[in-house]
Design brief:
two-stranded antiparallel sheet, 2 domains, 6 helices, seven-stranded mixed beta sheet, globular, 221 residues
Length: 221
């Protein structure tokens, strides 16, 4: 659910004698003694090829993006601008597309786990074709807080459904590996939610990523 590299960067080592503690809606203070623990993974919803070979470039792109944000000086702040071409000096558009597709993948896994009535087939098609999903937007920002520390993990998605079809019209979900949060949004054509203001999509063709502030609110709507 959160990449192993992100968790390791935030917490260092973990063991059975010095575990992390996992919280969700059902469990509190569940000890985690390994970064490979099943509780840190989505239930299996992808074939081995898609989860590994096909999406490996997407995983690598996010790993580098996250690491560069963590190393960035000065640190990101609300309304600051991160330039993607400074994170990926070469083949910037392709690498940022891979970041986009990384979140397309985990959005699909989240939708399957939570049984959200999202068109996951369209998410799978974007991944298989290596093309941006037309309805998935990303907004980068300062992570929400858990107590006095940045949240490491993810919040439950909020979804707004069409009254007639029951299908998702807009979905907002905050994924936070600790150093930066990503508001992943699914919006059908014609949606004008305020949360989309300042969001990024590969078709925009811009290297400038506006940093929002998620500390005092859950998800944009």
């Amino acid at each position: 659910m959160t990449k192993r590299s992100d968790i390791r960067a935030e917490f260092g080592s973990v063991s059975q004698t010095e575990p992390l503690y996992f919280h969700d809606n059902k469990h509190k203070n569940r000890p985690v003694g390994s970064f490979k623990a099943d509780v840190l993974k989505f239930p299996k919803s992808l074939c081995a090829c898609c989860n590994n070979t096909r999406t490996q470039p997407h995983d690598f792109a996010w790993e580098k993006f996250s690491a560069r944000i963590r190393e960035r000086q000065p640190k990101i702040s609300p309304s600051s601008i991160v330039r993607a071409n400074r994170i990926f000096p070469y083949d910037t558009a392709r690498k940022m597309l891979n970041v986009h597709l990384y979140f397309v993948k985990i959005l699909g896994c989240h939708a399957v786990e939570k049984q959200i009535s999202l068109n996951v087939e369209s998410l799978a098609t974007a991944i298989k074709q290596g093309k941006a999903h037309p309805n998935v937007y990303l907004k980068f920002g300062i992570p929400p807080m858990f107590g006095s520390q940045p949240l490491v993990g993810a919040q439950n998605a909020d979804a707004w459904l069409d009254r007639l079809s029951g299908k998702v019209q807009f979905l907002s979900w905050i994924h936070s590996p600790g150093n930066v949060a990503v508001n992943v949004m699914y919006a059908v054509e014609g949606e004008k939610r305020d949360g989309l203001i300042g969001a990024w999509h590969p078709r925009m063709g811009t290297n400038k990523l506006l940093i929002d502030d998620f500390r005092d609110r859950k998800k944009d709507s």
